[in-house]
Amino acid sequence: MASSDEVSNPAKTDVDHREHYGEKEVHNEVDLIEAVVTAPETTLESFADLDEKKILRKMDIRLIPMLAILYLLSFLDRGNIGNAKIEGLQEDLMMSSDEYNWCLTVFFFTYAAFEVPSNLLLKKLRPSRWLPLIMVAWGTVMTLMGIVRSFHGLLITRLFLGVTEAGLYPGCAYYLTMWYCRHEIQLRQAMFFSAASIAGAFSGLLAFAIAKMDGIGNLEGWRWIFILEGLATILIASIAFFVLYDFPETASFLTEKEREFVVFRLKYQGQFHGKEPGHPQVAQAEDFDWKYVLAAFKDWQIWVNIFVYWGVVCPLYGISLFLPTIIRNLGYSSSTAQLMTVPIYITAAILAVLFAFISDRVGKRSPFVIVFLLTMIVGFSMCISSTNPRVVYGGVFVVACAIYPAFPGVVTWLSNNLAGSYKRSAGMAIQIGVGNLGGAIASNFYRQKDSPRYILGHGLELGFIGAGIVAAFILVAAYATINKKRHRIIQEGGEAQFTAEELSAKGDRAVTFRYMI
Prior knowledge:
Layout: H1 17-21, H2 29-37, H3 52-86, H4 89-92, H5 97-113, H6 115-125, H7 127-145, H8 151-165, H9 168-177, H10 185-210, H11 221-243, H12 256-267, H13 290-298, H14 300-328, H15 334-340, H16 342-362, H17 366-385, H18 389-416, H19 421-435, H20 437-442, H21 455-491, H22 500-506
């Protein structure tokens, strides 16, 4: 049920929405729901008879599993080049270590460039159409990667893989914000992002099994890794086309009143007064306008947050692309190296979900992000200071178990503090797009000539983590200062000088909006 601190009179009789608005010329269901939730007489009390937890469970069951599968395939297809390498890709294509690193790097250039356009198209073209479409595209590219014959062929396919995969993660992260409120979103982000961690474990197991196909069809084992995983992506995309839901307003698994409730919660979240009598009813801006996109590019918090993001994403890609190689260079065989990655990723996935649940419950983001960044420093320090394989493996274990809980925390922290649907769409894409250029940087940290200790790579990771910690403290101080200033303005009645429409257009810059720390 809607929480008691928000509902003053649970026994209040619910209005008959259709009777009130039946005379209005409402062309479709979306317009009708919009009319209902923005009506002056509609408050949280109007939905007092609904079970909020039950509605969230219904949403979780129908949304999260499919998104997790999509992201698992995305991360699997993006990182399987690391598995292919230890199965002989570099030698068979007669590439130098620098050429191999270039193949890793170019992916991130196109990946970063196409994220903002993709996120803007997502809402316009509908998630159930756009996400499966880009899946088919990258599955096709991945399959073709299995038949390349040279360095240049692999380089070009990696460029196109970046173009086609660009919209998946920021699209899924933004998609969830269209369903869940900011105090419950990190758990859902972590549930689907932990699929990336499972992909890391599954990638090792799958590559170990597929590599046994070496010689079938006169193809090397590493080629089968690309071909079979690409075909699997295309197959799942065809299923996603039928099972993905678009928006709460059109969700067939919710009743009409449940849809109204979900939309109402989303529309008035993050405001100091929400929707209370005697105060402006500040709804989230939903209509597209280029000024919201421009506002995202000019927003200081996005660019500061990107440094925090780099502090997490550089170690993330360093680990995902090079973990099998790092373990193999410690003296283990290729097959053992693949299998030794599994417990690392499984543990990391469990911790990601656990700490996301705790973060949502306490309503804080920064303490968890900062603690995990500090934990990464401990892990990389273990790697850089020892030649003992067990200590290095333990250090990598510690790093991974901090990265995977931290990543959804960083993404959620920014999304919580961006108001206005299209500004959030563009802002999250900028964060993830520019932030993933850190992946381009990290893909060159671990050079073959630095093996087996990789002191330079580990040292550079420590530098980015340190910058991330500084940026996180800057955000905390700035958010706290702004929140106090806005509270003082509200206390003095300062919001009265703005109309509800003006406050809505200001989004997270409105005096009624509170940043989550």
